[in-house]
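anyone seen this seq b4? input:
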Amino acid sequence: MMEKQCIITKLEGRMLAFYYEEHKLVTIEAIKEEQQEELKLGGIYTARVQNIIPGIRAAFLDIAGHSCYYSLEDNKHTIFLNPKKNLVVHVGDMLLVQIDKEPVKMKQAAASCYLKLKGEHTILTWQKPGIGISKKINGEKRNLLLEWMKECTKNRCSLTEGSYGFIVRTNAEVCSKDDLLIETEQLREQLNRLMKQAETSVSGKCLYSGASFYRELLNRVGGKKNSRIITDIKTVYDDLEKELNERRLQTAVEWYEADFSLTAKYELKKALSMALEKRVWLKSGGFLIMEPTEALTVIDVNSGKNISKSRDRDTLFLQINLEAAKEIAKQIRLRNYSGIIIIDFIDMEQNEHQQVLMEKFGQMLAMDSVKTTLVDITRLGLVEVTRHKIKKPFHEQWQER
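predicted toks r here
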């Protein structure tokens, strides 16, 4: 079982969470204090259709004064809360939606009709039937969980319309059949209550705010014996202890109060600085230049100080590119880059070397917990990658002071 750790502390006036896997830093997240007026990622709201743009097959919704993007192309099962003679979205309609993407720069938050309710072990997916199992669960346990979930969902649909399914989370690897049975029934009941409440709610009402930061943190770290959270912020420690006691989890939460600061012990200032720098040095002497823009992120690979007199320069470039590919996969996750990512590796003449690079790079990207796709090499030799957008990249989180 992978060892996970999270360190929560304040640095330069911001509360930050540093996530580690097997003692290696994998990502940094700025923790924002809850603000009631903001739309929350994962929140379920009643929304009014404000405008429709046929050219892009999209509607713009009003949620308590916030404008929100709603794709008519992707949302095939819109949930209407007002009487309708047909299923075509019109201005003035009231919908039930869930925020599935945070606003990024000039782009509004995005909403979906495919609702999700998260539990500790499972996620209920409204209007997306079927049973999915986390890819991180393998072997006999995977087959056993699938069998249990089929029993949990058999003849238990109490919802009057639509269909639902479940995704089994990685945390379910250590749960029992009874745990799944109880949780799936609770999620069904919760969705039933939510749907009934929506029928009589006014526009802009938040019906589900999603899991709290602490609940999501515990789910993310793992909730097991080989995971721990360290903090020197007393309120964070108290809230985590309360959550642990309520859920009876085995995660260790440590209150750090030594003379030697948490920031100094784990070199967090250095980690923060490196996560914000545009230039990233490679051990070989090469370096990366990382430039996030409004439309996409551009990464340039340079040989730098690694200048060889060897005649076999193509082999040397392959070595640098492979080292760069490993670092790029790490940095994309660390900085939470998303959307379109273009990488300009050092040009190589041999097709075999390009194939090796693409194969290895694809394997590295596949280790990311967020869906990341290696698309192809363009005619100009640029490598295209896409990464699912969920939260803002870290440099934008850091700038929101």
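The first strand starts at residue 4 and ends at 11. The chain has four domains: 4-35+212-268, 44-112, 116-208, 277-399. kinda curious what u guys think
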